[in-house]
Specification:
50% helix, 205 residues, 6 helices
Length: 205
């Protein structure tokens, strides 16, 4: 405890281990969840979607409905959109809102001009991507935690196997008067490396 750098390093190691072990249990996003609308999203302390992202998604939804956006307003955690089209808008197409990563189920507030104009309200679906998203739209923070788990497991298993081999090796040298150790020295070192890697991989699987 008198060695402050050593204590600080041990605390940092424990913090990293807890971050990797408990982090995926606390984050609401699974490591394999895919968000197609947030592919390559930049790290941010604010939730997605931003107004710019939501407006871009609304434009895509309107295009699928063969309509255009006459007006849009974001208020109270929901989007209020006015859609207009030359033909009556099929309300079944409002399922596109729920299929996106930004909105929940949409409902029609008002229908005008024989269904050629709809006022639609859809709740915003907030998603926190603190470390951003990768090229497939997966949360990088959660995936880093899972990857760090594997790295920690490999390190712990490597140390445990090396310690076990070292104890057995030292005991053999002490009680076997070095004869068994001489036999082991005669074997290729690569054989032990392959054995160690295979055993670590088998335990981790």
């Amino acid at each position: 405890m008198r060695n402050r750098p050593a204590v600080a390093a041990a605390a940092a190691l424990v913090a990293v281990a807890l971050f990797c072990i408990l982090g995926p249990l606390l984050t609401p996003i699974p490591y394999d969840a895919i968000y197609p609308d947030y592919v390559g999203a930049a790290p941010s302390l604010f939730p997605h979607p931003t107004e710019t992202e939501a407006r871009a998604m609304l434009d895509r939804i309107a295009g699928r409905l063969r309509a255009r956006i006459a007006d849009v307003m974001f208020e109270g955690g929901q989007a209020r959109v006015t859609l207009q089209a030359p033909r009556p808008i099929d309300e079944r197409g409002l399922a596109y809102f729920e299929r996106s990563d930004a909105f929940g189920p949409a409902r029609v507030i008002e229908s005008r001009d024989a269904g050629r104009a709809l006022v639609v309200a859809a709740p915003l679906r907030r998603t926190w991507l603190l470390a951003g998203a990768d090229g497939n739209g997966r949360d990088l923070l959660t995936r880093m935690m899972i990857a760090a788990r594997v790295s920690l497991l490999v390190g712990v298993l490597g140390c445990a196997v090396a310690l076990g081999i070292g104890v057995v090796y030292g005991a053999a040298a002490g009680y076997g008067r070095m004869r068994l150790v001489d036999v082991l020295y005669a074997l290729p070192f690569m054989f032990f490396v392959i054995l160690l890697v295979c055993s670590s991989a088998a335990i981790s699987c």
